[in-house]
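Box 3.1 A note on notation
Throughout this textbook, protein chains are presented in two layers. The first layer is the amino acid sequence; the second is a token string describing backbone geometry. Keep the layers aligned when reading.
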Amino acid sequence: MAIGERIRELRIKKGLSLTELANRAGVAKSYISSVERQLQLNPSIQFLNKISRVLDVTVEKLIHENNNENEETDIDIEWLELAKEAMESGISKEQFKQFLEFQKWQKSNSSNN
């Protein structure tokens, strides 16, 4: 399900019209409509933050396809923060992959001794 479909579904479940959601979130009704109709496929994080607050859900719930409350596959917030910190420090994906490979190699060598 696309982001727009999830927003529409949550809006309807909450009993909100497009106008009510737009007014409460402080965004244009036409923009919400274009997101829901999938004319706008890449809404900004600011937009998603505003909408998620009114709909009482996390931004992640709007973005991710699988939103089962019982699923244990959600990424730990601390891991997300560490990944964000690594990105902000200038580490490339390739450098991070090399670091992980080194850690795996080091662990396998220490368990062999």
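The two ends are 50 Å apart (CA to CA). The chain has two domains: 3-63, 77-112.
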